[in-house]
Design goal:
- With 436 residues, the protein is an alpha/beta fold.
- It has 18 helices and 14 strands.
- A six-stranded parallel beta sheet has the order 3-2-1-4-5-6, sandwiched between helices. The protein has a six-stranded parallel beta sheet with strand order 11-10-9-12-13-14. Strands 7-8 form a two-stranded parallel ribbon.
- Strand 7, helix 8 and strand 8 form a beta-alpha-beta unit.
- Helix 5 packs parallel to helix 6 and helix 9 crosses helix 11.
- The termini are far apart.
- The structure holds nicotinamide-adenine-dinucleotide.
């Protein structure tokens, strides 16, 4: 099929390259000229494992091209996907300005009947707004479909190529059939295409993210109780997760959830609920618990090293909001760095992929180390903020010799407290039981 993706970020680029891989002709459009220039020159501007190869392969075989010109790029497309950002507005609601601006331009460029499918995460009812804009500015028959995207950064390629499910929210049989045909190769093995009305599809995406955020906040709250009563949250997690009714995913206590989706989508869902005067108390509590949780590690550091951290050197390993991405949007690590700076500390940071993106958030307020060991050198405390594989089994003996202090703060509960205790470290985890 001839496809156009509007917005070439994490979602648009992965989806565009993924569709091209299955033989479609794809144009990825973005208003960020630098991003498009870089892609046209063969450079992928974001880090996502495997993405560069996938993009380069499909560019080379002529199925994937890039453009800044929406008008000409949508002409002749059978399906146009909207994959632009929907950041939080000032009141927490989703800011739809990019979606609506893109829709207006699309409307002027459409040259015949086609499908416009929304991959961006948008509040319930946004499809109706898109439809109204198209009706006003376009004379062709256009079906508007909600096709929410569920990929996870860090695993985006496999999530996109082998999705757990594809949701098609639409009441137009022709458009449903077009999308079913497009997705058929992606769901060969599980055949999980779900067709539903557009409002339900839009809501499903928010429900999924709010549920996952709630599971994380639930475990984070329990971690504080575990500390208070002398239990180990990791043992509790294993016991709990072995119940098939509960499942073992998204039960990890940690430094708080972040990223480009959970915080903003929880805010947007609460905002929508507020507008409809429907209280979502569980979701609101999950959000509050997360705000508190992001302070957990900096507060632990402060309790351990003193109210003022002036003169203290704190190393942070990991800046991305999760491993295998360079995305630092609403990252708990960035939040912790800022808080420690406010407490007076000198903060030195290292991340295998997110140094450049972190620089735009932290500027010259922190020191940037060339590697993980350099970061730990002369540190009074070391914080593990993102569980990249390279941080899982470092040379702790070397670290012990390099650090000035001996405090390790494990914000993702990946280290063994007993091992570290034996090596002479003071270990602080999230709800972990310390060896006595
Ligand atoms: P992103 O910020 O990485 O990319 C969005 C891109 O859209 C940017 O490059 C921006 O320049 C471009 N853009 C903005 N307005 C435009 C316009 N009028 N025309 C063309 N391009 C335009 O965002 P993302 O992470 O890819 O997320 C996109 C959407 O998908 C959001 O709604 C997000 O909530 C949702 N989503 C994201 C993920 C994820 O893991 N990142 C997963 C599922 C869903």
């Amino acid at each position: 099929m001839r496809l156009t993706l509007i917005g070439t970020g994490y979602v648009g680029l992965v989806a565009g390259a993924g569709f091209a891989e299955f033989g479609n002709d794809v144009i990825c459009v973005d208003i960020d000229a630098q991003r498009i220039e870089s892609l046209q020159a063969g450079r992928v501007p974001i880090y996502e494992p495997g993405l560069e190869d996938l993009v380069q392969r499909n560019v080379a075989n002529g199925r994937l091209t890039f453009s800044t010109d929406t008008l000409t790029s949508v002409a002749g497309a059978e399906v146009i996907f909207i994959a632009v950002g929907t950041p939080s507005g000032e009141d927490g609601s989703a800011d739809l300005s990019h979606v609506l601006a893109a829709t207006k331009t699309i409307a002027r460029g459409i040259t015949g009947p086609c499908v416009v499918a929304t991959k961006s995460t948008v509040p319930i009812g946004t499809g109706d707004k898109i439809e109204a804009v198209l009706r006003e500015h376009c004379r062709h028959a256009v079906a508007v479909v909600s096709n929410p995207e569920f990929l996870k950064e860090g695993d985006a390629l496999s999530d996109f190529m082998k999705p757990a499910r594809i949701i098609i929210g639409c009441n137009d049989d022709g458009a449903t059939e077009t999308l079913q045909r497009l997705y058929a190769p992606f769901v060969r093995t599980n055949n999980r295409v779900m067709v539903m009305d557009r409002h339900s599809a839009e809501m499903t995406k928010y429900a999924a993210n709010a549920m996952l955020a709630t599971r994380i906040s639930f475990m984070n709250e329990l971690s504080h109780l575990a500390s208070a009563v002398g239990a180990d949250i990791e043992a509790v997690r294993r016991g709990l997760g072995s119940d098939p009714r509960i499942g073992n995913k998204f039960l990890f206590a940690g430094a708080g959830y972040g990223g480009s989706c959970f915080p903003k989508d929880v805010r947007a869902l609460l905002s929508s609920a507020g507008k409809h005067e429907v209280p979502l108390e569980i979701v609101a509590a999950a959000q509050r618990a997360n705000e508190r949780q992001k302070e957990a590690i900096p507060r632990l550091v402060q309790q351990s090293l003193g109210e003022s951290l002036t003169g203290k050197r704190i190393a942070i390993w990991g800046l991305a909001f999760k491993p295998h991405t360079d995305d630092v949007r609403e990252s708990a690590a960035i939040f912790a760095a800022r808080m420690l700076i406010d407490f007076g500390a000198t903060v030195v940071v290292y991340d295998p992929q997110a140094m450049d993106t972190a620089r735009s958030e932290l500027g010259s307020k922190v020191e940037y180390a060339r590697d993980m060991y350099e970061a730990a050198t002369s540190a009074d405390a070391l914080i593990l903020a993102t569980e990249w594989p390279c941080f899982r089994r470092p040379d702790f003996k070397r670290i012990k010799d390099m650090m000035r202090g001996s405090r390790l703060f494990d914000g993702r509960n990946i280290w063994d407290p007993a091992d570290l205790h034996r090596l002479g470290f003071q270990y602080f985890g999230i709800g972990r039981r310390n060896p006595s």
